[in-house]
Amino acid sequence: MTDQRPRLPISRPDFWAACFLDEYADDVAGVDVDVSDEEYAPDLVVEYGAGGGYALLVSCASYGVTLSLCHPGAAKPVELGWDDLAHWHPHALRWSEVDLVCRATALADPDAGYPGPHLALLGRFGPACTEADAAVAVPLLREAFATLPGLDRYQRHTYASRGDIRASGVRWKKDPTGWWYPVQGGDTGEEWHDPYRDDPDAEDYLDGGLYSTREPGNSDFPFAALAATVDRARARCAALREQPWTVAAPVQAAADAFGGHPSAAHRAGLFEALQAAGCVDRAVLGALAPDAGELRALVMAELLLGVEPGSLVRARSGPEAPRPLRHYYANAYLPVAHDAPRKGLASQLKPPLNTALRAAGLGTTDSGPVRLGRHDGSSVDDLSLRLIDDWRAGLELVREALRTAGAPEGSTVEVRRRGETVTVNLEQPLPRHPR
Question: Domains of the chain, with CATH numbers?
Answer without folding.
Answer: 13-239 (no CATH), 241-317 (no CATH), 327-425 (3.30.70)
